[in-house]
Amino acid sequence: MSQVQEKYQEAESSYGSDLLNLVVAKGYLTKLLANEAVKSYISRHEPEILTHLELVVNTVSMEEAVQQQAQTTEAASEEAATRA
Predict the structure, then answer these.
(1) Distance between start and end Cα atoms, the chain
(2) pLDDT at position 60, please?
(3) Which residues contact 49 (CB under 8 A, 6 or more apart)?
(4) Which residue ranges make up each domain of the chain?
(5) Taken in order 57, 58, 62, 67, is the CA torsion positive or negative?
(6) Hey, which of 6, 46, 58, 64 has its CA 20 to 30 A from 35?
């Protein structure tokens, strides 16, 4: 029980800085993907990474992120099944 309490206190103490880092990262990715040349390059060379970056940019909450990830995984599975 003491280990759980220690982990909780660690998470609680770093929550503010972690949240700030995520907000800054999301803002940076939003600006980066707004640049059509950058988006086109990533789309051509790393389409899977682009999908994940767009997921981050379009995510409002953690629950939404989980839901979007599930939908993306389901769509990828269906596409792979149709190819086979």
Answers:
(1) 49
(2) 73
(3) 42
(4) 2-83
(5) negative
(6) 64
